[in-house]
């Protein structure tokens, strides 16, 4: 077993050279070294272990170190690890596209590859705006998004996110997006949508949304019927609808995609995170043949000019195909149902808890708010207290301010879920005694 000096060496070496994401290094100067993962567990330098209750930022849907996925990536690496995707293609990308489209509504017929969730969203917005531009409808430039939206951290994706701590330093540099009311208040939200569309019917191009669950905004959940009404309004006024399923895709909501709960379907869907089971970075944006054909022209200026060096990387495609192999197994959906049932039973047992407030669930996603004082939101001081408490208990949770949530890998066992529930109850009891 590695000794403690090695552990401290990694911590010190990291602190000397690395700038971590979403980290205030003045407050959190040191990061925990992880040497391996297995299933739901992460292991540190001295074999201390942490139950990964958030699938490492929602990506490892099948758990860590999955041997089948690792084998498929290895096999692909022996064939071709990377090839330019402009003018060339390869079997893993073709197979992945065919398989993804088979699980999406039938009007999705084309797949565009990118490298992560933010860029998948940016591609979706570029598709929508250029769709109208290529037809000479240059006034259709406005975009509608939801209050408390979050769509990523690139400049385009930040523009689509509601003003918050994530994008505050850049507000005067972002393109204009109009935000309608929180969909948890259906009447106000739908009326707000109507008012916007009727005020300038020829100027709106797109409506973008996180279907059913707004993730980084606080795991805010709303009804499919509300989104159906919003999409219907958007379509009646000629807007393209963009579903950001970066988080909600691949079983998270209890179905393949959150859009599967909808009667009205989006025109564009953005996927990432669980797409490769957490093994490789990849994003895709899917659309219809009608949208694709609006870019066909003898004029090269009507091309969708977007790419990156690793577009449709064969290793990432192999990982995604392996992840789909696992997603298509009956046992994976049995595990998903078990997680859903376990969450439901625990949530019902805590309905009247004085601290664990507004317990809510959509499929395998369970969230709650810590009701301590009047303050709420991402900057709530309880965030750091809760994070450190659970780390000391050997559980990785990453609170959104005073909101705690569980997005565990599908391989998690009931007894492992119980460890999380019990820790939540114990933390709430400490808060009750303290506050």
TrEMBL record:
Similarity comment text for this entry: Belongs to the class-III pyridoxal-phosphate-dependent aminotransferase family. BioA subfamily.
Provide the positions where the record notes the PTM N6-(pyridoxal phosphate)lysine.
273
Q: What CDD domains has UniProt attached to this entry?
A: OAT_like
State what protein this is by name.
Adenosylmethionine-8-amino-7-oxononanoate aminotransferase
Subcellular locations according to the entry: Cytoplasm
Q: List the molecular function annotations (GO) for this entry.
A: adenosylmethionine-8-amino-7-oxononanoate transaminase activity
Q: How does it assemble?
A: Homodimer.
Per the UniProt record, the site (Participates in the substrate recognition with KAPA and in a stacking interaction with the adenine ring of SAM) maps to 22
Which residues does substrate bind?
57, 150, 273, 307, 398
């Amino acid at each position: 077993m590695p000794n403690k000096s090695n552990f401290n060496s990694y911590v010190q070496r990291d602190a000397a050279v690395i700038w971590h994401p979403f980290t205030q290094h003045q407050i959190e100067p040191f990061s925990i070294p992880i040497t391996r993962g297995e299933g739901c567990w992460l292991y540190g330098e001295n074999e201390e272990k942490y139950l990964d209750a958030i699938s490492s930022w929602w990506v490892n849907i099948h758990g860590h170190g999955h041997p089948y996925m690792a084998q498929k990536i290895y096999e692909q690496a022996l064939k071709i690890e990377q090839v330019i995707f402009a003018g060339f293609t390869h079997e893993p990308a073709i197979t992945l596209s065919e398989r993804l489209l088979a699980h999406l509504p039938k009007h999705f017929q084309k797949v565009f590859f990118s490298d992560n969730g933010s860029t998948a969203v940016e591609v979706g917005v570029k598709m929508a705006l250029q769709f109208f531009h290529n037809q000479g409808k240059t006034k259709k430039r406005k975009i509608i998004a939801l209050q408390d939206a979050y769509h990523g951290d690139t400049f385009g994706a930040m523009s689509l996110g509601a003003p918050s701590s994530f994008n505050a330093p850049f507000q005067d540099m972002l393109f204009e997006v109009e935000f309608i009311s929180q969909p948890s208040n259906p009447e106000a939200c739908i009326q707000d949508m109507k008012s916007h569309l009727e005020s300038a019917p020829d100027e709106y191009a797109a409506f973008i949304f996180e279907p059913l669950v707004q993730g980084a905004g606080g795991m805010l959940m709303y009804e499919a019927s509300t989104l159906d009404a919003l999409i219907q309004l958007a379509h009646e006024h000629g807007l393209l609808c963009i579903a950001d399923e970066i988080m909600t895709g691949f079983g998270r909501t209890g179905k393949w995609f959150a859009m599967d709960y909808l009667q009205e379907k989006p025109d564009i869907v953005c996927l990432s995170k669980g797409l490769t089971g957490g093994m490789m970075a990849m994003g895709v944006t899917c659309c219809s043949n009608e949208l694709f054909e609006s870019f066909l022209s003898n004029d090269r200026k009507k091309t969708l000019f977007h790419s990156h060096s690793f577009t449709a990387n064969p290793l990432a495609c192999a990982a995604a195909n392996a992840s789909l192999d696992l997603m298509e197994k009956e046992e994976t959906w049995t595990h998903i149902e078990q997680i859903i049932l376990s969450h439901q039973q625990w949530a019902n047992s805590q309905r009247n808890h004085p601290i664990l407030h507004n317990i809510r669930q959509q499929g395998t996603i369970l969230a709650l708010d810590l009701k301590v004082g009047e303050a709420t939101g991402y900057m709530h001081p309880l965030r750091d207290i809760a994070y450190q408490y659970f780390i000391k208990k050997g559980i990785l949770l990453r609170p959104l301010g005073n909101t705690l949530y569980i997005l565990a890998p599908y391989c998690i066992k009931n007894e492992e879920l119980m460890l999380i529930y019990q820790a939540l109850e114990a933390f709430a009891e400490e808060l009750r005694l303290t506050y």
